[in-house]
Automatic annotation (TrEMBL):
Protein name stated in the entry: ABC transporter substrate-binding protein
Domain Receptor ligand binding region as annotated: residue spans: 46-381
Localisation: Membrane
Family matches, as InterPro entries: ANF_lig-bd_rcpt, BCAA_transport, Leu_Ile_Val-bd, Peripla_BP_I
Signal sequence extent: 1-23
One BP term from GO: amino acid transport
Amino acid sequence: MKKSVLAMAIAATSVAFVGAAQAEVKVGFIGGFTGPIESLTPPIYEGARLAVQQVNEQGGILGGQTLVMPSADTTCSDASAASNAADRMVNTENVTAIVGALCTGATVAAANSAAIPGGVVMVSPASTAPAVTELDDNDLVFRTVPSDAYQGEILAKLMLDKGFDEVAVTYVNNDYGRGLSDAFVEAFEAEGGMVAENVAHEDGRADYRSELGSLSASGAETLVVLAYADGSGQTILRQAYESGMFTQYAGADGMVGSSLIEAVGADVLEGMIATRPGSPELPGTDIFAEAAEEAGFDPTAVFAAQAYDAAFLLALAIEQNGSAEREGLSQALRSVSSAPGEVILPGEWEKAVELIAAGTEINYEGASGTHEFDENGDVPGVVVEMVVEDGAFVSKGLVDL
């Protein structure tokens, strides 16, 4: 009798534990919490967490379960750290999907080492290099940010339109830097510009005076730095200024951060030109901005809106898929992000759940774009001009080709 009671108690406890485990649906976040983009990562993470918060406040996911977001650090620059972060998400946390990574090298490493073998969908809000397009990923790797093949072309057009027809370029020697440099140089020279010198550099060094000497010897007075605000980018700009080598600076999304200005000096960088992916004028843009401000983070922070969209899209896809299983999620992601379908805007979780339950097709139009994924998981996008004015990067609006 005692054994029977004990067996029943154990069985009941086991059921309770299974129920508890099933009460949570996990979408992981992996990003560069330390390393060369550590000052850019917090608002990106907060963007994703805002989507999770809204899902839970509006009844939860899959019949009232709680959506949770475990996180891990890729460091941005260490492929083994990225692989370990992804392995933890896929095989220990047993996440259904992943928001991330942020730096392209981290995304490639995480995808190849853990996510693709584990059948886990990844949506990066920040990996912009063309290398992501080239992954053999079984339709598992997506991104809510446009490729640098487009941003590099836009930066080239912007510089030429402003009268800078001769430049020197230095880029961080990884997938991000190489891809962006290739796109920029090709477009710049095709439109009649002259790249006087193009020099790769390794991230994380204390001294770039040798590279700067070669760049300066080219005779160009404008230096384009394609690197990271918390890494080589700030060291190069500081040493270039100290050496009096250039009169104008330019960069791309990895350089757009307040930490760069704080480290190098507002007076030094006054007038610096940069580009970054932006958000088109859609209803979701203002809705997200208001929600982000209420949540206490800057809605205009680089990649924050893209991270929100990545997390919200994954939640919609899981709901559409009908379970927390990984299988079928990429097809569901394509379904909820594409026309035709009733439009879902940021924050409209309850509405989406009701429509999905009724068998109605939905089409999410987000905070940073419409996200019609192509066959490679890429999206069209828009690019914003940024200029340093009075100690801050200030948006000057969208730039078109």
